[in-house]
């Protein structure tokens, strides 16, 4: 089926959605497929950084990487990766730069704010150059 699958993981949302996205990626993968679990860390505004403990961002990044590594260890040919940037744009850029042929992304039910601003999943669906499988 697919050879290079990207699964964006947002830890602030329901863990069941991440688990479901990983399960779908596993079912759509060939035996030798590469699955990448990607978490995008958005930039913390400068006015907030001064109120955070000194190592907060580094510790948060390490904790997220450890969670991704644990999830990836349960899969064949999977890796976890933490990158910085804006969620939607970074997912699209990473997928294009790494020849991803499928993105499996969880989404929430759209509300009025999503029609005005757009959710991450909506942005990925609209602009991805590869297949996108959306879970609700």
Topology, element by element:
Elements: E1 2-8, H1 15-28, E2 29-41, H2 46-49, H3 56-73, E3 78-84, H4 87-97, E4 102-106, H5 112-116, H6 120-127, E5 131-135
Parallel strand pairs: 1-2, 1-4, 2-3, 4-5
Helix pairs in contact: 4-6
Q: Could you name the key traits of this structure?
A:
single chain, 136 residues, alpha/beta, Rossmann fold
Question: Care to describe what's here?
Answer:
By secondary structure, the chain is of the alpha/beta class. It has a domain at 1-56 and 69-107: 3-Layer(aba) Sandwich (Rossmann fold), CATH 3.40.50. Helix content is 44%, strand content 27%. The protein is built from six helices and five strands. Strands 3-2-1-4-5 form a five-stranded parallel beta sheet, with helices on both faces. α4 packs parallel to α6. The longest helix has 18 residues, at 56-73. The radius of gyration is 15 Å and the shape is globular. 25% of the residues are buried. The mean pLDDT is 89.
Could you tell me the mean pLDDT?
A: 89
Instruction: Give the number of helices.
Output: 6
CATH homologous superfamily identity of one domain: HUPs
The CATH topology of one domain is given as: Rossmann fold
How many strands in all? 5
Question: Would you identify the CATH architecture of one domain?
Answer: 3-Layer(aba) Sandwich
Report the biggest beta sheet as strand number plus sense, adding barrel if it closes: 5 strands, parallel
- Low-confidence stretches at least 5 residues in length (pLDDT < 50)? none
CATH class of one domain: Alpha Beta
């Amino acid at each position: 089926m697919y050879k290079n699958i990207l699964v964006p993981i947002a830890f602030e949302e329901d863990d069941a959605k991440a688990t479901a996205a990983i399960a779908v990626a596993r079912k759509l993968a060939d035996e030798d497929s590469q699955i990448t679990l990607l978490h995008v860390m958005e930039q913390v505004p400068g006015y907030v950084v001064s109120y955070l403990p000194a190592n907060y961002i580094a510790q948060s990044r390490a904790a997220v990487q450890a969670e991704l590594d644990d999830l990836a260890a349960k899969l064949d040919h999977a890796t976890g990766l933490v990158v910085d940037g804006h969620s939607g744009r970074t997912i699209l850029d990473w997928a294009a730069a790494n020849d991803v042929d499928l993105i499996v992304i969880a989404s929430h039910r759209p509300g009025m704010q999503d029609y005005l601003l757009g959710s991450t999943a909506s942005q990925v669906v609209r602009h991805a150059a590869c297949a996108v499988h959306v879970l609700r």
